[in-house]
C-alpha cells in the first residue's frame, strides 16, 4: 500500500510541474499574439505565485481539517480548471484571471505533499518526489513546443495539460480509501499539536527563509526568462527556445533522480552546498560563452545544480527545527519560496526591459550569491 501511495504522490507531482514551466516557454508566442511587452509575463507569474503564497500560509489549517488526500484532490481540480481557462485565453486580462486558481491550487498541492513525505518517508523519496516534478516541468515546454510547431497555437498546449490534470483528479478520487488507511489526518494533527507556539523565534530560521526565497527566485527566473534570453540574445526561434528550456528542466529532473541515490552517501547540507557550486558554474558559462553547445551545457548545469538544493532544504527542516515544527515551518518556508517566485522574476523582467535581457546570467549569479551566504549562515548558527 505504501508503494501504491508513493506512485500516486509521484504522479501528482508530475502534474504540479507541468504548468510551472509552460508560461516561460509559451511567452514569446503569447506576447506576439497579444502585442504585449516582454515584462508582461512577470505580472501573470506574480499572480500565480501570489496565490501559492496565500494557500501555503493557510495550508496547515486545511491539512488539519481535511487531510492530505482531500486537499490534494481539491487543489488538482482547481489547477485543471485554471489550465482549461488558459486554453481559452483570448486576451491578457483573461490569462491574469486564470492565474488565480492555478496559484491557489498549486501551492496547496506543494505544501501538502512535501509535508507528508517529510514526515513519513526518507530523504531519497523527497528527492525523487521533486524529480517527478522535474519530469512534469521538462514535459511542459515540450508539449508547448509541439503545440506551437504543429498547430501554431499555444492554447493547444494548455488544453493538453488540462486534460492530463482532469485524469489525475479521477485517479485521486479512486485512491481516497488508500489515503484513509494511512490515517494522514490523525497523524498530522498529533504532530502539529506539539509545535512551538512561536516558530518565528527559532534560531537560524530567518536565514533559512531567505535561502528558500532565493532558491525559488533563481529557479523561476532561469525558467521564465530563459526562452526570451535565447530568442532575443541568441537569435533562436520560439519553438526551438522552448525545447532548449526543457533541457534546463531535464537537468533538474536527472539531477534529482541521481540525488535520490546519493543521499545515502552525502548529508543534506553537503548536497545543498555542492548544488549551489554547480549552479554557479552553469551561470558562468552562460555569461562567458556564445557557442551553441556551451549555452546548452550552461542551462544543463544550472538545472543539475538546482536539483539537490530544494528537496534537501525541505527534508532538513525536521532536523534543523524539530519534527514537531515541521508542518508549520514547511508551509512558512514554501510561502517565502513563493515570495521569491512572485516578486523577483517580474523585477528581473523590468530590469531586462531597461538594461537588456543579455544580463540574464548576471541576475542568476547575483541571486545565487545571496542564497549561498544565507545557507552558510544557517549552518553556522545551528552548529553553535
How would you portray this structure in words?
The chain has a single domain (2-383), classed as Growth Hormone, Chain: A. Helices cover 86% and strands 0% of the residues. It is built from 16 helices and no strands. The chain crosses the membrane at residues 34-54, 66-86, 92-119, 131-152, 158-179, 208-228, 240-258, 270-289, 295-314, 335-354, 360-378. Residues 5-378 form the Major facilitator superfamily (MFS) profile domain. Its main location: membrane.
Order of helices and strands: HHHHHHHHHHHHHHHH
Largest sheet: none
Total number of beta strands: 0
Taking pLDDT < 50 over at least 5 consecutive residues as the criterion, the unreliable ranges are 190-195
CATH fold label: Growth Hormone, Chain: A
Indicate the mean pLDDT. 84
Number of discrete helical segments: 16
From the helix content, strand content and strand pairing, which structural class follows?
Answer: mainly alpha
Global Rg = 19 Å
CATH architecture: Up-down Bundle
Give the gist of this structure:
This protein is mainly alpha-helical. The protein contains 16 helices and no strands.
Which key features would you list for this structure?
384 residues, mainly alpha, Growth Hormone, Chain: A, Fucose permease, transport, MFS_Transporter, transmembrane transporter activity
Topology:
Elements: H1 2-20, H2 22-34, H3 40-57, H4 59-66, H5 68-87, H6 92-120, H7 123-151, H8 154-182, H9 184-192, H10 205-233, H11 238-262, H12 268-288, H13 292-315, H14 317-321, H15 326-355, H16 360-383
Amino acid at each position: 500500500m505504501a508503494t501504491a501511495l508513493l506512485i500516486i504522490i509521484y504522479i501528482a507531482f508530475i502534474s504540479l510541474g507541468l504548468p510551472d514551466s509552460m508560461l516561460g516557454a509559451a511567452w514569446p508566442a503569447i506576447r506576439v499574439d497579444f502585442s504585449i511587452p516582454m515584462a508582461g509575463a512577470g505580472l501573470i507569474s506574480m499572480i500565480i505565485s501570489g496565490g501559492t503564497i496565500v494557500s501555503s500560509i493557510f495550508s496547515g489549517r486545511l491539512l488539519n481539517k481535511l487531510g492530505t488526500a482531500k486537499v490534494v484532490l481539491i487543489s488538482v481540480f482547481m489547477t485543471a480548471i485554471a489550465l482549461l481557462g488558459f486554453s481559452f485565453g483570448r486576451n491578457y486580462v483573461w490569462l491574469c484571471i486564470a492565474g488565480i486558481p492555478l496559484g491557489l491550487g498549486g501551492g496547496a498541492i506543494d505544501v501538502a505533499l512535501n509535508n507528508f513525505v517529510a514526515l513519513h518517508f526518507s530523504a531519497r523519496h523527497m528527492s525523487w518526489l521533486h524529480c517527478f516534478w522535474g519530469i512534469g516541468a521538462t514535459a511542459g515546454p515540450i508539449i508547448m513546443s509541439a503545440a506551437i510547431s504543429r498547430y501554431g497555437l499555444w492554447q493547444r498546449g494548455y488544453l493538453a495539460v488540462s486534460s492530463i490534470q482532469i485524469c489525475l483528479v479521477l485517479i485521486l478520487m479512486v485512491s481516497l480509501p488508500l489515503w484513509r488507511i494511512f490515517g494522514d489526518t490523525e497523524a498530522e494533527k498529533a504532530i502539529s499539536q506539539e509545535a512551538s507556539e512561536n516558530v518565528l523565534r527559532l534560531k537560524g530560521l530567518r536565514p533559512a527563509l531567505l535561502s528558500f526565497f532565493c532558491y525559488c527566485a533563481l529557479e523561476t527566473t532561469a525558467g521564465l526568462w530563459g526562452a526570451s534570453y535565447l530568442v532575443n540574445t541568441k537569435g533562436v526561434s520560439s519553438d526551438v527556445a522552448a525545447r532548449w528550456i526543457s533541457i534546463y528542466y531535464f537537468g533538474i529532473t536527472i539531477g534529482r533522480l541521481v540525488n535520490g541515490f546519493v543521499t545515502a552517501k552525502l548529508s543534506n547540507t553537503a548536497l545543498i552546498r555542492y548544488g549551489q557550486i554547480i549552479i554557479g558554474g552553469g551561470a558562468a558559462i552562460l555569461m562567458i560563452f556564445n557557442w551553441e553547445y556551451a549555452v546548452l551545457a550552461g542551462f544543463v548545469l544550472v538545472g543539475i545544480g538546482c536539483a539537490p538544493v530544494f528537496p534537501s532544504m525541505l527534508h532538513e527542516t525536521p532536523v534543523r527545527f524539530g519534527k514537531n515544527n515541521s508542518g508549520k515551518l514547511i508551509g512558512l518556508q514554501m510561502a517565502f519560496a513563493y515570495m521569491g517566485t512572485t516578486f523577483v522574476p517580474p523585477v528581473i523582467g523590468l530590469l531586462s526591459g531597461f538594461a537588456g535581457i543579455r544580463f540574464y546570467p548576471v541576475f542568476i549569479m547575483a541571486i545565487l550569491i545571496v542564497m549561498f551566504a544565507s545557507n552558510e549562515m544557517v549552518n553556522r548558527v545551528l552548529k553553535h
